[in-house]
Amino acid sequence: MSTKVDNTTGKICLGTAQFGQDYGIANSLGKATKPQVADILNYAQSVGIFCLDTAWAYGDSESVIGECLRDKPGIFKIVSKLPSLGQYVPGKIAEFFQQSLQRLGVHRLYGYLVHRFKDIVANEDIWKDLAMLKEEGKIEKVGVSLYSPDELVFLLDKEIKLDMVQIPYSIFDRRFEKYFEPLAKKGIAVHARSVFLQGVAFLNLDSLPVFLQEARPALANLQRIAHGEKIPAEALCLNFVLSNPAIDKVVIGVDSLAHLKNNVAAMNLLNKVRQIYSQLNSIEIEREEILLPYQWALKV
């Protein structure tokens, strides 16, 4: 199978949480080393992936990226996110932002997102600070990382000016779908994450944690389709999201070069997955306790 995909890879934004910390319920390799990160970034560039997603909260991910790209400035469009703010302090956002720029070794960011929705509720003046950074040409797009459609409704009702939202979206998680058209009309870019539900899609049904047992029917359905159509579950999950024209970028995290190569190879099955899209529409999990990884810790 070819590992070179046409322009499909241009819709990928490489998630980098694994560059700075152990991340993902199915991640058995742990945090990637700097040489591994350099190899991943070089390969991503070679196949047409030019977007990176990182955050202050991802350990030393920003610093690792900056070191690996020191001799290649400007190749990737980088999206980063604010740390948890706690109490709002004027000027603090600009300070955090500048520190991220320094770690990444860049002068501007493609996107800068509020990572905690609660920070917005606590003080909407955050947007004034972000708007100022955008006016200064240091950020192309400002936005927020969301977990729940209720959070998006709050922002839309407040008419807060957004350029981008990052949301969980997958075969399993379809909660935001009815908002895709309104977002498109407002010119708000949609970046989808948790395409594989942080690796839950690949877990053995016999070893599912107790708190994920309610996901069993959906996972069994996915495996049945994968077996019947002779398409790996990974390819079904990834290409389901790539097939949706409302999604501007698909954020996928990898813990090794081989992992990224497998994802890129899976994109070659995009047209085949499109042909069975209606079958995949039947797989859905509605309970947020299953769909939102931050709630899993409450059940362990």
What is the gist of this entry?
The chain has 14 helices and 8 strands.
Could you walk me through the main structural features you see in this protein, from its secondary elements to its overall organization?
The chain has 14 helices and eight strands. By secondary structure, the protein is of the alpha/beta class. Helix 2 packs across helix 3 (61-68) and helix 3 (61-68) packs across helix 4 (92-104). Residues 1-6 and 23-28 have low confidence and may be disordered.
Helical content stands at: 25-40%
The strand order across the widest sheet is 1-2-3-4-5-6-7-8
- Give the radius of gyration: 19 Å
The ordered string of helix (H) and strand (E) elements is EHHEHEHEHHEHEHEHHEHHHH
Instruction: Describe the largest sheet.
Output: 8 strands, parallel, barrel
In round numbers, the mean pLDDT is: 91
* Estimated share of beta-strand residues: 5-15%
- Name the shape in a single word: globular
What is the β-strand count?
8
Our count of helices gives: 14
Name its key features.
disordered N terminus, globular, 8-stranded parallel barrel, 14 helices, single chain, alpha/beta, 300 residues
